Amino acid sequence: MEKDDRLEWSARSLFVTGFFVELGLVLLGAALGYLFLSRPFPFRLALDAQGLLVGLLATVPMVGFAFALTSRLAGRVGFLREMEGKLKLYLGSGIRSMTIQEIILLSAAAGVGEEILFRGVLQTLFGSTWGLWVASVIFGLLHAVTPAYFALATLMGLYLGSLHIATNNLLAPILVHWLYDAVALYLLRKQWLKEEEEEAGREEEKEGEETKENHQPE
Predict the structure, then answer these.
(1) Secondary structure letter of residue 119 according to DSSP
(2) Which of 75, 57, 98, 81 has its CA nearest to residue 193?
(3) Residues in CB range of 184: below 8 A, 6 or more apart
(4) Where are the domains of the chain?
């Protein structure tokens, strides 16, 4: 019998664990900032019009990227299919059952926690040029479910880090990260629920055919 390595998360356990782990990165970032830079939050975070506008505009290509990654065409590309399969294996059961509100809140926690740690603290710690690359590679490594995921997460880190440098405001990368994650999780949830329904339909059809065969006169 083939071993089933799926992790059976409930929506509640995935949401609660993910939410508090992501927000815990704020504390980790604050500790590193205080330890190495004598300031827990060595970056600018301002709720201003420029940060909001840049963040919203910079989200547009990322949302397009999320739609591309969850398209039927992407499912025909080997390394993208492998990446989606790994995510489904580890997180599929929980994400399928999550509500839209839970997806939005979990994505917000990821946007705040990860951007404070990687762009706000680590990128600042190593300086603009080196910090951009160091923070992005570490970001990629911590998302390295597959080699393709590592490469895509590193590129996303470079994108978010460049936004931070360009605006000198962590608001823009937080917004982009939050909205991208929310859209990507919603699209994966929608796709996996549809696949689950189709699989259930095939099983029902198969059972119906077997029942019909069993009731045929000899």
Answers:
(1) I
(2) 98
(3) 66, 69, 70
(4) 11-198
User: What span, in angstroms and rounded, lies between the C-alpha atoms of 171 and 120?
Assistant: 10
Q: What is the pLDDT of residues 155-208, one digit of tens each?
A: 999 999 999 999 999 999 999 999 999 999 999 999 999 988 887 777 766 766
In this structure, which amino acid lies at residue 28?
A: L
| DSSP 3-state of 43 | coil
pTM of the model: 0.89
The three-state secondary structure class of 8 is coil
Confirm if 199 and 92 have CB atoms less than 8 A apart. Answer: no
Tens-place pLDDT, residues 64-121: 999 999 998 988 999 999 999 999 998 988 999 999 999 999 999 999 999 999 999 9
CA–CA distance, 53 with 47 (Å, rounded to integer): 11
Counting Cβ atoms within 10 Å, is residue 90 exposed (0-12), middle (13-18) or buried (19+)?
Answer: middle
CA dihedral 160, 161, 163, 167 (to 10 degrees): 140
Cβ-based neighbour number of residue 56 at 10 Å: 13
